[in-house]
Amino acid sequence: MQPTTLIGIGVGILLGLVAMSVAWRYLARVGNLPCPTWLAWMLELKFMERHGGQSTTIDALDLAPGMRVVDVGCGPGRLTFRAADLVGPGGEVVALDIQPRMLERLNKRIHERGVENVKPILAGAGDGNLPADYFDRAFLVTVLGEIPDRERALREIHHALKDDGMLVITEIFPDPHYQRVGKLRELAGKTGFEFATLRAKTFSYTAQLRKKG
Question: Which pairs count as long-range contacts for 104-113, CB under 8 Å and 24+ apart, including other chains?
């Protein structure tokens, strides 16, 4: 096969991927669609690690051994295992996602790594699957905008957190579901949360929300 043919095939594949990505971004904005499984690799790029607020999210959670944590919209587990390491064998991370194939990828990694303190649950935030006054921490990373009823979801998380519990939300600007800080403040006020801290980076921000006293 000639080099020009190979280049043409490569360009065609690249254009196809770009077209699918653009189509997903449009549909995601219109219908609150979650990130599809075939784009899960994007969630674990080095760019996301450096500029997507992942380390900032973990720092903001201020995790300690024995804590119970819920990872809302966990996807393939990009932060699930980091949280599980920090809470240790005496703690627990509930990994919540509405996509079966995302949880299949997560379950495969759980078995490969021999992790025993991660509990995957096929459900959405706001569906009523979280126990009351159970969790020390909850977090959402580029997930809030994918939830159709965001107020209902945050009310359930509020109900599931202990009185001294904390919710951490990270938003990344290129994400099609990006939620502005002002919208998050308004939503937090409606659902019983108040801002504790806000950490802004070039392409993202991370907010710590605490239950109102």
Answer: 105/37, 105/40, 105/76, 105/77, 106/74, 106/75, 106/76, 106/77, 106/80, 109/76, 109/77, 109/81, 110/77, 113/81
* pLDDT tens per residue across span 183-197: 999 999 999 999 999
Q: Which two tokens mark 90?
A: 């005496």
Q: What are phi and psi of 207, to 5 degrees?
A: -115, 135
- Strand 68-72 relative to strand 92-97, pairing: parallel
> Could you tell me the fold of the domain covering 34-211?
Rossmann fold (3.40.50)
**Domain ranges for the chain:** 1-31, 34-211
Compute the distance between CA of residue 40 and CA of residue 30 in angstroms, rounded to an integer: 20
The pLDDT tens digits for 73-123 are 998 898 999 999 999 999 999 999 999 999 999 999 999 999 999 999 999
- Maximum Cα interatomic distance, the chain, rounded to a whole number of Å: 70
